[in-house]
Design goal:
mainly beta, Immunoglobulin-like, two-stranded antiparallel ribbon, elongated
């Protein structure tokens, strides 16, 4: 509950604080074990996600991304283990984020 007091008058309102991760994971296992199986971008309000291979070829693109990337290409083929590069465009006006993510399906 949050209590606010203004000019001698106060009021109480329920208040729920939520947290979101500010860091982007550096790897996915995408092996179906339930841990790190997808590229988790919850809280980033992603307008568009693009994934590129090490040669700069675009292998995946999704608008209004909601954690669908599990290491597959746009055609649904499983991508080989390795380093990929991402570009994240956001809906909230925040700057575009870029970085790398590693796919490692081996246990």
């Amino acid at each position: 509950t949050l209590t606010v007091s203004v000019s001698g008058c106060s009021g109480d309102e329920p208040f729920v604080a939520t947290t979101t991760s500010c860091t982007i994971q550096k790897g996915i296992s995408a092996n179906g074990d339930g841990a790190n199986d997808y590229f988790d971008l919850d809280g980033f309000n992603v307008r568009k996600l693009q994934i590129f291979n090490r040669y700069g070829g675009k292998v995946y693109e999704r608008t209004n991304y909601t954690n669908q990337w599990k290491g597959q290409s746009d055609k649904g083929d499983e991508l080989p283990d390795g380093t990929y590069y991402y570009v994240i465009e956001r809906n909230d006006g925040e700057p575009t984020k870029t970085g790398w993510i590693y796919i490692n399906r081996k246990n």
